[in-house]
């Protein structure tokens, strides 16, 4: 069957067709649509695939490892920075190995379209010493899911699949199988000690992982996902990873005004699987290699590694040498320039155009929350407000300019605590409901234990808003969670962020700022985007 | 299911607008018609933070030959289709020198420093190949609701798409079929209004 699918959807369909039993994920651009697709497929035609959102990437990874332990195929999805959250579970899953196939999907966001950094998840695969797949297009992404699960079970290792924004969020026609593979039956691991990482056992496991490395490399050489095409002038070669291949092929043969491609006749080494294929690289060297252009989406991972794999006389060019931009995602234009081609003729930029940054929706509860907070904060000499990750991060921009920090999931609570410890008053954290249950709860426990003089303002819109309105893990239970963690019930306050409640909200904020201990103010009103959807659905039924 | 392949067909299109305006429904209809024609298609979309009222675009590529890059090179686009006039101008660097701009003339005012509208419209008119239209008025005149304004815009772009008018309207009918005949008809009326306008000014 042929379908028009986003890269994310191709991955999801590939997993379903490979006999998936559970997807575990926390929403994060550009990975969110994978889990959403599986949820929709499950709603349409139930196969018993577990697909509820997880509280964070670490709980997701651990649940997936548990599913794999029982012999079934599991998928964990996240954006690149989610890898940091689940790194403990991820790194150690490489040591335990797997029973049922386990694929970890990391969607990187070079150029930071919707992220705070552009870290490259391929480093994590190398760090954990496990195979990594990096499909170059939507069809490969689909096909590699079946391959990845087979490889995972054959070599008893988790597999990291890395994609980037342009693949995740681009549609193309994908050919799929007609009938999904059956899910695995439940089975125990052959060697249960493999999952008990006491030092004595872990050392043995780690030695096995080290011994497996040649098998991983052999797979990269022979599985057919990496291809080497000797050119007519093989003293020059171009190495591409993932979708970089498309930018190369787009520009080959597109010479205009009689220009000659600087790399005409060059050999092409297309990488979509790691560890790097040593045999193919040696073949490329043996064919007389003198100059190698490395085109990769993300950080110069391969460019650095390859220098130790080719003779020092070979000139290696790429992001480190300035032949391609050091930062940001590749474009057809940056690759054109690296290939020695002039830019296409075009129109000049229009000076009249001004920026249109994203903003909080009109009528959004975060707006009323910030309006009240700003007014109260102005009453103090030097307030510090620590923000967090979500729609409400936009409170940093005009017209609010309300927050002084935003680092990573949950940091608002604990940075406010650290600031209070240092003597800051008022120290206020602003965090969304979903981010709070993702990584804010443990920080709040630290605050409670120290009776830190902070106000944690949970802007509760009853959803995970920024990624499009997914279920939020603590909806309906935030007061219980906060009092359960030990916040005094008198100091867990709830307000409704609406303009008509402005005076009440300000009074509550003042009281809790002046209270010398840990307090929580929950500003609760449904996200207007999900509200619209709910009203529409109610109208239909 | 595919009809005869359009040989040598290649259109690179930039769809532009403001997050929430609905540029992707235009892409959906063009995509539907293109696939029915047996064309290859790639469509890069923007999800995430920018959707909150920021500038958004989608690169839609159609071709009778396999397509490699998901993104269009600067100077590579045949056509910019925009639901907002300033947003149309944001991407002129990506347009071929003789490429077309088909855009709504109605500004979306959610920023304090929006430039003088007259100047924006003048800059669009400075491009030889342009269709500037009030999609909201045309939708209203066609008896379609404001939500169908994007279908007016789609209709205005049909003469530059390289896919037949009838194939496009069949695509519209298929995309909206599950919403019932009345919705199909208002959307078709909106498409016709845009199409007729573009033909009259071209």
Index terms:
heterodimer; A: 541 residues; alpha/beta; Rossmann fold; 3 domains; six-stranded mixed sheet; five-stranded mixed sheet; 18 strands; 39% helix; B: 202 residues; Pyruvate-ferredoxin Oxidoreductase, domain 3; 7 helices; 41% helix; globular
| Strand coverage percent of chain B | 15-25%
CATH topology assignment of chain B: Pyruvate-ferredoxin Oxidoreductase, domain 3
Q: Give the termini distance of chain B in whole angstroms.
A: 33 Å
As laid out across the biggest beta sheet of chain A, the strand order is: 2-3-4-6-5-11
Fraction in beta strands of chain A: 15-25%
How many distinct folded domains of chain A? Answer: 3
Using only C-alpha atoms, the radius of gyration of chain A works out to 26 Å
Mean pLDDT of chain B: 93
Residues in helix, % of chain B = 40-55%
CATH class of chain B: Alpha Beta
- Structural class of chain A comes to alpha/beta
CATH level 4 superfamily of chain B? Pyruvate-ferredoxin oxidoreductase, PFOR, domain III
CATH topology of the largest domain in chain A: the name is Rossmann fold
CATH architecture of chain B: 3-Layer(aba) Sandwich
Tell me the helix content of chain A: 25-40%
Mean pLDDT of chain A: 96
Approximate shape of chain B: globular
> Could you name the CATH class of the largest domain in chain A?
Alpha Beta
Q: What is the helix tally of chain B?
A: 7
Poorly predicted sequence stretches spanning 5 or more consecutive residues of chain B: none
Q: Alpha-carbon distance between the termini of chain A?
A: 32 Å
What does this structure look like?
- By secondary structure, chain A is of the alpha/beta class.
- The longest helix of chain A has 24 residues, at 199-222.
- Chain A has helices spanning 7-17, 32-44, 57-69, 82-85, 87-96, 122-128, 138-155, 165-168, 199-222, 244-251, 278-286, 301-306, 332-338, 365-377, 411-421, 433-450, 478-484, 502-514, 528-540; strands at residues 2-6, 20-25, 73-79, 102-108, 132-133, 159-164, 170-175, 227-229, 236-241, 267-271, 273-274, 291-295, 315-317, 384-386, 427-432, 454-460, 492-495, 519-524.
- Chain B has 202 residues and is α/β, with parallel strands linked by helices.
- Helix content of chain B is 41%, strand content 21%.
- Chain B contains seven helices and six strands; from the N terminus they run E-H-E-E-E-H-E-H-E-H-H-H-H.
- In chain B, strand 4 (77-82), helix 2 (85-90) and strand 5 (95-104) form a beta-alpha-beta unit.
- The chains are: A alpha/beta (541), B alpha/beta (202).
């Amino acid at each position: 069957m042929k379908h028009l699918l986003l890269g994310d959807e191709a991955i999801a369909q590939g997993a379903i067709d490979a006999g998936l039993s559970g997807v575990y994920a926390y929403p994060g651009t550009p990975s969110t649509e994978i889990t959403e697709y599986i949820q929709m497929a499950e709603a349409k035609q139930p196969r018993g695939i577990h697909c509820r959102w997880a509280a964070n990437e670490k709980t997701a990874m651990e649940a997936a490892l548990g599913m794999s332990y029982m012999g079934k195929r599991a998928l964990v999805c996240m954006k690149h920075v989610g890898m940091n959250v689940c790194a403990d579970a991820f790194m150690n899953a490489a040591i335990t190995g797997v029973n049922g196939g386990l694929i970890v999907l990391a969607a990187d966001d070079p150029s930071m379209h919707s992220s705070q950094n552009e870290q490259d998840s391929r480093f994590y695969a190398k760090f954990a010493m496990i195979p990594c797949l990096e499909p170059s297009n939507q069809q490969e992404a689909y096909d590699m899911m079946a391959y990845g699960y087979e490889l995972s079970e054959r070599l008893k290792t988790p597999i990291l699949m890395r994609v980037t924004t342009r693949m995740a969020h681009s549609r193309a026609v994908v050919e799929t199988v007609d009938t999904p593979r059956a899910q695995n039956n439940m089975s125990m691991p052959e060697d249960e000690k493999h999952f008990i990482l006491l030092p004595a056992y872990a050392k043995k496991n780690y030695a096995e992982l080290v011994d497996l490395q040649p098998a991983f490399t052999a797979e990269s050489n022979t599985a057919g996902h990496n291809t080497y095409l000797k050119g007519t002038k093989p003293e020059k070669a171009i190495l591409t990873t993932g979708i970089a291949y498309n930018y190369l092929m787009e520009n080959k043969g597109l010479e205009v005004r009689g220009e000659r491609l600087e790399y005409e006749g060059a050999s092409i080494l297309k990488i979509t699987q790691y560890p790097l294929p040593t045999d193919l690289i040696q073949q490329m060297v043996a064919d007389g290699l003198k100059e190698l252009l490395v085109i990769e989406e993300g950080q110069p991972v391969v460019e650095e590694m390859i220098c130790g794999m080719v003779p020092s006389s070979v000139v290696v060019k790429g992001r480190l040498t300035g032949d391609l931009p050091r930062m940001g995602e590749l474009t057809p234009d940056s690759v054109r320039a690296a290939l020695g081609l002039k830019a296409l003729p075009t129109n000049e930029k229009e000076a009249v155009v001004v920026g249109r940054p994203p903003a909080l929706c009109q009528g959004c509860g975060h707006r009323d929350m910030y309006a009240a907070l700003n007014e109260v904060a102005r009453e103090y000499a030097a307030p510090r407000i620590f923000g967090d990750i979500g729609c409400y991060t936009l409170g940093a921009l005009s017209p609010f300019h309300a927050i002084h920090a935003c680092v990573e999931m949950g940091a608002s609570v604990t940075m406010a605590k650290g600031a209070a410890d240092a003597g800051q008053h008022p120290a206020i954290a602003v965090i969304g409901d979903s981010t709070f249950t993702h990584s804010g709860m443990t920080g709040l426990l630290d605050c409670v234990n120290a009776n830190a003089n902070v106000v944690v303002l949970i802007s509760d819109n009853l959803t995970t808003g920024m990624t499009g309105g997914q279920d939020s893990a603590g909806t309906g239970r935030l007061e219980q969670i906060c009092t359960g963690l030990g916040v005094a019930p008198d100091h867990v306050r709830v307000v409704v962020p609406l303009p008509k409640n402005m005076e009440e909200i300000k009074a509550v904020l003042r009281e809790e700022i002046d209270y010398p201990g840990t307090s929580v103010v929950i500003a609760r009103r449904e996200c207007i985007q999900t509200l619209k959807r709910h009203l529409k659905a109610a109208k239909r039924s | 299911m595919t009809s005869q392949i359009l040989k040598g067909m290649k259109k690179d299109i930039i769809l532009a607008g403001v997050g929430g305006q609905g540029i992707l429904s235009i892409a959906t209809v063009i995509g539907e018609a293109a696939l029915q024609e047996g064309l290859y298609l790639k469509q890069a979309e923007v999800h995430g933070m920018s959707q909150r009222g920021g500038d958004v675009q989608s690169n839609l590529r159609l071709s009778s030959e396999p397509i490699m890059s998901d993104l269009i090179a600067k100077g590579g686009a045949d056509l910019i289709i925009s639901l907002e006039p300033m947003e149309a101008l944001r991407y002129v660097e990506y347009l071929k020198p003789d490429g077309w701009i088909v855009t709504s003339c109605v500004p979306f005012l959610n920023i304090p420093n929006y430039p003088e509208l007259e100047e924006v419209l003048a800059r669009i008119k400075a491009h030889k190949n342009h269709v500037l239209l009030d999609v909201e008025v045309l939708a209203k005149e066609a008896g379609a609701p404001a939500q169908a304004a994007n279908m007016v815009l789609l209709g205005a772009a049909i003469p530059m798409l390289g896919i037949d008018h009838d194939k496009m309207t069949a695509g519209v009918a298929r995309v909206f079929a599950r919403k019932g005949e009345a919705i199909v008809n208002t959307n078709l009326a909106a498409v016709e209004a845009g199409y007729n306008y573009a033909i009259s000014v071209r």
